[in-house]
TrEMBL record:
Residues 1-27 form the signal peptide. The lineage of its organism: Eukaryota, Metazoa, Ecdysozoa, Nematoda, Chromadorea. It comes from Pristionchus mayeri. This is Methyltransferase. Transmembrane segments: none annotated. Keywords: Signal.
Length: 246
């Protein structure tokens, strides 16, 4: 309960101190995974670290080292709890997520933890990590540093049909902490409509910070997607959802 309370306090501090200083030059950027800001708020010190070491899977020796940069990349340049919860869920045997030989797309990849971890600890046939142009250099550095086999691609949620992957089939689509910016909900839903077939399984991990965040999942269901909540992680206050087109 203390950990969850601290997480919620951090969210409130983010809103109080970070959002007023958002760089307005990025106001037209369509992806909710890329917003620039600066802050020196003490409780957010973990985001000021230049590297993060994450243990993944059941092997305590299996680690991913991630470069992060709060100042240069904003929210897309730091590691959020939703990414670690999503990775843990996907790799747990009891989750029964079939990754062997599957094609996987990660949306709004940021540092790329889910894509990197799946490359190192499972056997998909293809992994594609997508991001806005500004975030691609950091994403690519993390992939190379961990010797992961992951493709990267530019993906604009405002025009997903123009992406080089628009005609590709993906068995799984992943997203970590993408559901928080209401003006991007419609863009994200449209992106899923373009990239997901009825056979595609979608896994999102996110906090439900406000009632508007639940609205995203309601809107997705209204557009013909089955939405199921699979997991609630009390320690991080993160939910994992499974979605699929009907």
């Amino acid at each position: 309960q203390i950990t969850r309370l601290f997480s919620n306090v951090m969210d409130l501090l983010t809103i109080a101190f970070i959002l007023p200083s958002i760089d307005t030059s990025m106001a037209t950027v369509p992806s909710s995974a890329l917003v620039l800001y600066t802050t020196d708020t003490a409780p957010l010190a973990r985001f000021r670290e230049t590297t993060r070491k994450v243990t993944v899977g059941n092997d305590p020796q299996a680690t991913v080292i991630l470069e992060q940069s709060w100042d240069e990349y904003g929210v897309a340049g730091v590691l959020w709890d939703s990414a670690t919860v999503l990775v843990d869920f996907l790799l747990k045997p009891e989750s029964a997520v079939d990754l062997n030989g599957k094609s996987v797309l990660e949306l709004g990849s940021g540092l790329g933890l889910p894509s990197i971890a799946l490359s190192l600890l499972s056997s998909p046939s293809r992994i594609v990590a997508s991001e806005q142009p500004l975030g691609l250099p950091l994403l690519n550095r993390n992939i190379r540093a961990n010797r992961a086999i992951v493709e990267t691609v530019e993906l604009d949620w405002a025009s997903p049909s123009s992406s080089s992957i628009s005609s590709s089939h993906f068995d799984l689509i992943l997203g970590a902490d993408l559901v928080y910016k209401e003006e991007a909900f419609e863009l994200l839903i449209n992106t899923l409509e373009v990239l997901a077939t009825p056979d595609t399984i979608i896994y999102f991990a996110s906090r439900i910070r406000y009632p508007k965040d639940r609205k995203f999942y309601r809107n997705l269901a209204a557009r013909g997607f089955r939405v199921n909540r699979l997991l609630y992680d009390r320690e991080t206050d993160v939910y994992v959802y499974k979605m699929q087109r009907e």
